[in-house]
Amino acid sequence: MRQPAMTAAEVKDYLIEVFPQTAHLFEIDEIAPMRARVRMLTGPEHLRPGGTVSGPTLFTLADCAFYVVTLAMIGRVALTVTTNCSINFMRKPAPGALVCEARILKLGKLLSVGDATIWSEGASEPAAHAALTYAIPPRRGENVG
Amino acid sequence: MRQPAMTAAEVKDYLIEVFPQTAHLFEIDEIAPMRARVRMLTGPEHLRPGGTVSGPTLFTLADCAFYVVTLAMIGRVALTVTTNCSINFMRKPAPGALVCEARILKLGKLLSVGDATIWSEGASEPAAHAALTYAIPPRRGENVG
Amino acid sequence: MRQPAMTAAEVKDYLIEVFPQTAHLFEIDEIAPMRARVRMLTGPEHLRPGGTVSGPTLFTLADCAFYVVTLAMIGRVALTVTTNCSINFMRKPAPGALVCEARILKLGKLLSVGDATIWSEGASEPAAHAALTYAIPPRRGENVG
Amino acid sequence: MRQPAMTAAEVKDYLIEVFPQTAHLFEIDEIAPMRARVRMLTGPEHLRPGGTVSGPTLFTLADCAFYVVTLAMIGRVALTVTTNCSINFMRKPAPGALVCEARILKLGKLLSVGDATIWSEGASEPAAHAALTYAIPPRRGENVG
């Protein structure tokens, strides 16, 4: 299986460089071939009525974790962008840390496709599950055909 | 066609009550039967590398606008929650105001299903399109069967 | 707005050529810029328990209608393929003809993105709504970058 | 973990009863708690231009496999219906048998939510991945509140 091109520390440094405003919310627990585990520390600004973590917060974590695993595999390509995300919200997560497992199911030249599953830290049943596609910009001079 | 249960001003007051931290980002331009138009004022915190509005910001707007149209139709049910959102990101929106048209395609007792389309203000072509489902909690004593 | 490259009759001939086994199920009612209306004639083989049209049948119609509108706009590119479809099933359609309105929201060099809405013929409320993405293969010698 | 209510043979008998026209296409390899593996035998009618299995065929298998695992867990509830499916098509499967692993991520009173991954038999990389939601009809006299 294809090996990662970056370590967890390298990806974290890169996030701080390109997302200076939000990178501090995320910790990268693990990078493995085609997989990553990312942790998010939620605060009061991430809650919604009823005291549970908001949907946009869960989306943000799924999106970030899939970005992390894609970057880890292909290296520094900042303009890699989400093209599709379908997310199912299943259980309302309590305030506190969230853990997300992202995995790539297909890593092509132009698209990275996979999913991300989110749990409240310590919970056995997932809070949300997302299927994601990222577009990878062609390198200059590269012929995609 | 079923008529809205709340006006734009009533929904806005309600958003301020239940989402005090984020309600100021949104303006409700129009409520019509099964439709709403919501505007979002983006700031530097909503941008990503390249200076375009981030995916989570677009998700937040689509989610909020569909919440607005659902609330407007069914009245004050704060615990109405997103169960599914599938979003396609199509064009990178420039910084500035975003406009979102949300429409309900099915309003059942338990689910509100529809979509939301987002444009940069003044642009003719959409930046993102989302299909959404919200779950409506059963009222006390109501038998859903 | 970009104009279609093929007429309804030309697209229908092409469907018969590339999908000889299923093309007879579909009629192309209308082609317009970035839009198409396609009709499907369902038979007993398309029903499920309870006598309603099956989910896979509705998926097939949404997928075909979006293929039709994409082909109509870009011309004969048989290997254009679905990469993502998110479909919401909202009402059970009765046996008989189904009508599908497909529209393209973004027509890029590599992707066609849009949605498709399905009604039972004569019904005012939709049975299903799908968001779809098709990948368009690069032409030989074309540099996508 | 909650145990299945039906065996593979019981589910197969039930499919034959409620889907007499299509049940012969599917074999149920395994039922486990919250998981099922279903095999589909494809024929010439399931192919599309280029000789690969069609998207609607892959959708049909994902949908059937998730129905199988949901039925296996909750027992005979024929009117259980798909409400949402988001499917990513990743690789073109060659003609022949397809294998699908379906898993439930949340089994509630009203909804069964999970995913399904499809491979060509013997392939190591998946052809398609779907996230699915099924609605479970309330039993007579049951108060969902």
What does this structure look like?
- Chains A, B, C, D: GO terms for molecular function: acyl-CoA hydrolase activity.
- Chain A is an alpha+beta fold and 145 residues long.
- Chain A has a single domain, classed as Roll (Thiol Ester Dehydrase, Chain A).
- Chain A is 21% helix and 39% strand.
- The first copy, chain A, contains two helices and eight strands.
- Chain A has helices at residues 8-18, 55-74, and strands at residues 26-32, 35-41, 47-48, 52-53, 81-89, 97-107, 111-120, 128-135.
- In chain A, the strands form two sheets. The first copy, chain A, has a six-stranded antiparallel beta sheet. In chain A, strands 3-4 form a two-stranded antiparallel ribbon.
- In chain A, a hairpin with a 2-residue loop joins strand 1 and strand 2.
- Chain A starts with 7 loop residues before the first helix and ends in a 10-residue tail after the last strand.
- Chains in contact: A-B, A-C, A-D, B-C, B-D, C-D.
- The A-B interface holds A 18-19, 21, 44-45, 48-50, 55-56, 59-60, 63, 78-79, 81-89, 92 and B 18-19, 21, 44-45, 48-50, 55-56, 59-60, 63, 78-79, 81-89, 92.
- Strand 5 of chain C pairs antiparallel with strand 5 of chain D, so a sheet runs across the interface.
